[in-house]
Every structure is written in structure tokens, then in C-alpha cells.
Design a protein that fits this description.
The protein is of the alpha/beta class. Helix content is about 45%, strand content about 15%. The protein folds into 2 domains: about 150 residues, Rossmann fold (3-Layer(aba) Sandwich), CATH 3.40.50.10860; about 240 residues, Rossmann fold, CATH 3.40.50. The strands form 2 sheets. A 7-stranded mixed β-sheet has the order 9-8-7-6-10-11-12, sandwiched between helices. Strands 1-2-4-3-5 form a 5-stranded mixed β-sheet. Bound molecules: glutamic acid.
């Protein structure tokens, strides 16, 4: 697959081009932002439990490192390819720039369904992958983190492998580690918590309140969706639907989220949860709710189903869950979109906190982390909202514009090598 082939890369380029036109971005800067700085493709052969060898394809793409070391997750998913990884790396550049982190954008992953591998096979896969990409990553150059299909355990194996290669422990090679091996409090919930903060900020702008009157539907029930659901529920909102690959569960009076969390933590499908009404994922997206949070994967709301979306606020918990056309359709009929690079930035913000704490060997308490997370997201939200008003563009383009402003200044100051 060529670099530009994936729908996410094509869409991101289109948004990049329109947003840069609106704000008058220097065309020479735009030209540089269209391409990733560096992309590595690796073969990841492992011995399966049955003794046979299977080779997977892995990638690490560094999009832009003007603001600092590359930062971005590792995704284990059957849809992973070079082009989608490059698009996600590009989104990380804009995400880090938008929320003011001293970090660039990168992303990696392996084309694999992690549910089909045993724990031992996953460990072998992670260790071999870490070895294969070890020459392009480092605590000062490119710092991976969890993403879809990876978690704290994956990061612990990854960190251990990199440390074995170096001969000493390098906690700063990844973020999203378990607390015992140098992780940060609040990192596991940070993305979902950030989504909940952003829903609050948006509600304020639209004169809505997060409380019993607010109905929320969440597409997904994983690392992002669960803490977002828990936080919004704790504020009184009714989480009326959540979903996984098996389908969606629905209760107009609000679901028992704790029960669903307990159920899925035992690797059971939501559709088998006793006493709930089942609906399809498509029906979930079309529910008459106040807030819709697509928090699973990209390309879920497209031009085909965007018109069915009734939510007033659509919070992009995942990366790229709404296509460019879907954003235009929903914005045109008055829907308020909280764009992914703002809405789900909580994860990388607390990753940054983890990296900083690790470098200082001094760890903060949860209160401090959540306060700092809230403040960064609040400021970023206000910036995007102002650009949305100033340029009269949807929130997605406004977010790109805010990211470009910072990148443009930094890229100009650093210049182009050789000049
Ligand atoms: N994978 C997350 C994202 O897409 C987090 C990245 C990180 O923490 O570096 O933003």
C-alpha cells in the first residue's frame, strides 16, 4: 500500500489543505507537513504456541519532530498498514502542537488481531517488534505508548526489551507503563477523562448541562469509552448506549456501567450481558441523544450515515471516527464536533506528564495530574473555539488551524536544513 492510499491519510490531507488555506499557512510549510519525516517497515516473525513460525508486518512512522521527540501509540489491529499509520502519525503531530506539548508526532503498529494470539505469543511479538524498531526510537527521539490493542503490559514488555538491548533500565522509552515500573497515576484513564472534560466545555458553550437531562451514546467500550462513561455518569449524565464488536446495548433510562465493565473485564461480549436491550452499532450512532462519543476506531461515521446522527455534541474519542464528509454534514445541520486531536488528547498529555516525571524521578499525586490535564485541555478548547468563531469554520478545521499556528512558528524559527 502506498503512503497516500488509506482513507484516513486522504481525509487528513484534505483537512490539512482546507484549513491551511483558510488561515493562510505558508505553502512551503504545508508542503513539508504533507509527508512523514521517516517511515520504517519491519517483518516481525514469531514462533506460535504450536511451534510454527508466523511473520507479521510492523511499522513505525515519524511524521514531524520540529517541536520535540516523536510521540504516539502502538496499534495492534488487522487494519494497520503503512498509510494508516502515517496518517495517525500526522494526527499526533497536530495533536501535540495543538495542546502545547514539546513533542512531535509518530505512530506505530502491527497488522495483527491480538485476540487471536496467546499471552506468550503477544509477548514474543512485542519483544521482536521492539528490537526491530529499536534503531529509530529512544527516550529523546521517539517515545511509543499504548493505542488500540495494546496496554500497560505491552509497554512493560517493550520497555524491558529495549532496556535489555541497552544494558540498563530505560523507563523513558515508552509511556503508558504500569505504575510499578515507572508509569504515571491517571494515565490509564486520561484519554477518557479528557473526553469527559471536553464534553463539559462544549456543553457550557451550548448552554447545556452535564446532568440527568443529558443522554449519552458511546460507540465503543474500551480504554477510552469506559473512563469517559464513568466520569460522565458520575456527573449525573445518562449513558444510554455503549457497544463492542458484538453489537450495542441500550437502556433509555441509563445503563449500569459498572456491571458492563465487570462483564467485559472477563472477556465477555456486551451482547451476552443479561437483562439489556440489544441494538446494532448503526442504531447506536443514530440514537436521539444529546452527546455521541465515537470512541472505537476511525471511519465509523461517513457520508452514508452522518445524516442519521441526531446528537448535538459529537465528541471524537477515537482518532478519525468521522470522515471529512461526515464532519461537514453534521456541522451543516448544527451539530457541534469536538475534534479528535483535542477531544482525545488527554492520553498524550498524561503520557507527557509520565515522561517528565520519569526524567525527574519525582512522581506527582493524582490530583495534580488531573488538575494539570484539565487546565491544558481547557486552554486548548478555548483556543479552538475562538478559531472556530474567528474563521467561521467547523471545530475540526479550527483545531488544525491552532496546531498549524504553533508548528508554523517553530518550523520558521528552525528553518529548513540545508538552507
Ligand atoms: N495512542 C494515544 C493517541 O492516539 C496516546 C499516544 C501517547 O500517549 O503517546 O493519542
Amino acid at each position: 500500500m502506498s503512503l497516500f492510499e488509506s482513507p484516513l491519510y486522504k481525509d487528513s490531507l484534505k483537512i490539512l489543505e482546507t484549513a491551511s488555506e483558510v488561515m493562510g499557512l505558508d505553502p512551503n510549510i504545508l508542503e513539508r507537513l504533507k509527508y512523514p519525516k521517516r517511515a520504517l517497515q519491519v517483518a516481525v516473525p514469531i514462533r506460535l504456541d504450536d511451534g510454527t513460525v508466523k511473520t507479521f508486518q510492523g511499522y513505525r512512522v515519524q511524521h514531524n519532530m520540529t517541536l520535540g521527540p516523536g510521540k504516539g501509540g502502538l496499534r495492534y489491529h488487522p487494519k494497520v498498514d503503512l498509510s494508516e499509520t502515517a496518517a495517525l502519525a500526522m494526527l499526533m503531530t497536530f495533536k501535540c502542537a495543538l495542546v502545547g506539548l514539546p513533542l512531535g508526532g509518530a505512530k506505530g503498529g502491527i497488522c495483527v488481531d491480538p485476540n487471536e494470539l496467546s499471552r506468550q505469543e503477544l509477548q514474543s511479538l512485542t519483544r521482536r517488534f521492539a528490537t526491530e524498531i529499536s534503531m529509530v526510537i529512544g527516550p529523546n527521539s521517539d517515545i511509543p505508548a499504548p493505542d488500540i490493542g495494546t496496554d500497560g503490559q505491552t509497554m512493560a514488555w517493550f520497555m524491558d526489551t529495549y532496556s535489555q538491548l541497552k544494558g540498563y533500565t530505560v523507563p523513558g522509552i515508552v509511556t503508558g507503563k504500569p505504575i510499578t515500573v515507572g508509569g504515571s497515576l491517571g494515565r490509564a484513564e486520561a484519554t477518557g477523562k479528557g473526553v469527559a472534560f471536553c464534553v463539559n466545555f462544549a456543553a457550557q458553550k451550548l448552554n447545556m448541562t452535564v446532568g440527568p437531562e443529558m443522554k449519552v451514546a458511546i460507540h465503543g467500550f474500551g480504554k477510552v469509552a469506559i473512563p469517559a462513561a464513568q466520569d460522565l455518569k458520575a456527573q449525573g449524565a445518562k449513558i444510554v448506549a455503549v457497544s463492542d464488536v458484538s453489537g450495542a446495548i441500550y437502556d433509555p433510562e441509563g445503563l449500569d456501567i459498572d456491571k458492563a465493565v465487570e462483564w467485559t473485564s472477563r472477556r465477555k461480549f456486551l451482547k451476552d450481558l443479561p437483562g439489556v436491550q440489544l441494538i446494532s452499532n448503526e442504531e447506536l450512532l443514530a440514537l436521539d441523544v444529546d452527546v455521541l462519543i465515537p470512541a472505537a476506531i476511525d471511519g465509523v461515521v461517513t457520508k452514508k450515515n452522518a445524516d442519521n446522527v441526531k446528537a448535538k455534541i459529537v465528541a471524537e474519542g477515537a482518532n478519525g471516527p468521522l470522515t471529512k464528509e461526515a464532519i461537514e454534514i453534521i456541522s451543516a445541520k448544527g451539530g457541534f464536533i469536538i475534534p479528535d486531536i483535542l477531544c482525545n488528547a488527554g492520553g498524550v498529555i498524561v503520557s507527557y506528564f509520565e515522561w517528565v516525571q520519569g526524567l525527574q524521578n519525582f512522581f506527582w499525586d493524582l490530583d495534580e495530574i488531573n488538575k494539570r490535564l484539565h487546565n491544558i485541555l481547557k486552554d486548548s478548547f478555548e483556543n479552538v473555539y475562538e478559531a472556530h468563531k474567528e474563521y467561521d469554520v467547523d471545530m475540526k478545521k479550527a483545531a488544525f488551524i491552532c496546531a498549524f499556528r504553533r508548528l508554523e512558528r517553530a518550523m520558521r524559527l528552525r528553518g529548513l536544513f540545508p538552507s
